[in-house]
Amino acid sequence: MLSRSLQRAAVAGVATLLALGTLTACSDSPADDSGRISVVTGFYPLQFVSEKIGGTDADMVNLAQPGAEPHDMELSPAQVAEVAKAGLVVYLKGFQPQLDEAVAQNAADRAFDVATVTPLVSGPNHQGATEEGGNAPDPHVWLDPTRLAAIAGSVSHRLAELDPAHAAGYAERGDALVAELNKLDAEFSAGLANCQRHEIVTSHAAFGYLADRYKLKQIALSGLTPDTEPTPQQVAAVAAEARQYGATTIFFETLVSPKVAQTLAEQVGAKTAVLDPLEGLAEGGTGDYFSVMRANLATLRTALGCS
Prior knowledge:
Elements lengths: L3 H17 L16 E5 L2 H11 L3 E5 L14 H9 L2 E4 L5 H10 L4 E3 L31 H18 L4 H25 L7 E6 L3 H6 L3 E6 L9 H13 L4 E4 L6 H10 L2 E4 L14 H16 L3
Parallel strand pairs: 1-2, 1-3, 3-4, 5-6, 5-7, 7-8
Helix pairs in contact: 1-3, 1-4, 2-5, 2-6, 3-4, 5-6, 6-10, 8-9
C-alpha cells in the first residue's frame, strides 16, 4: 500500500489531470456509459440508502471496501476518477477527508453532503473518554433510523431531479425505505422502553445518536474515531462508571480490535458483546442495515435487562 504522503500525491496528480481534461467528468448529463446515472457513495450506510432508492435505474460505486474502517479511507487514483465522473456523490463531509478533497476538486456541483439534511451535533452522548469537552461534531447519524430516513428522502429527491425519466421509481422506492426506517424506529422505541439499565459502555463513541433517540447514556472508552487508544487512567475511569451503573456488558465492534473492551470487561466482571456501528459491513458478512440494526436491538435488550 502506498504511504499516506504518496497516496495524497497520487490523488493530487489525478486531480490535475482532470483539470487539464485528460479525464473527462460528466457535464450536461449525469448518465454513465450504460445510460444510467452513476452514484458514488463514501461508505456503507450511504451505499445502502442509495442502492435501495436507485434500484436498477442507477449504477452504484461505494468507495469504502468491506471489512475496512472507513474514517481514514485513502482514495486511489481510480477512485478519484469515479468521483469525477459521477452523476451524484453522496457523502458526509468531515468523515472521510480524502473524499472531501476529491469532491471539492472534481464534483462540487454534483455532491450531496448528508449533514445538510440532518446536522451533526456534539454533547455528552457524543464523546468518549479520550475527548475533552466533546466539541467535535459526531458523524454517526445513521444509527438513528429517523435521521437516516430524512437522508433517504433527500436522496430520492436528488435522484428524481437529476434523472426525471425515472423519478416515479425513485419516489416509490424512497417512500418504501422511509416507511421501513420508521418501522425500525418504532421497534427500537418499544424494545428499549422498559429496561433495568440505560447505560451502554462502548469501545468507541459511535452510538450517541442512538442513545439520544432512545434515552440511553453512552459511556465510551475512546472518542469519535476508533483508532484512538485510551490511557490506563481513562480505562480506569470508565471502569468506575461501569461498576457504578452495574453494567453487565462491554460492547465492542466488528472492524476494530476488541482487546481494550475485553480488558475492561475483565476488570469489572462483565461480558463482551458486539454492538455494530455500521460504518461498514464485515468482509464476507451477510445481511444489511436492517438486519444488523435488529441484531443490535436484540443485543441491547439482553444487556440492559429489557422486558
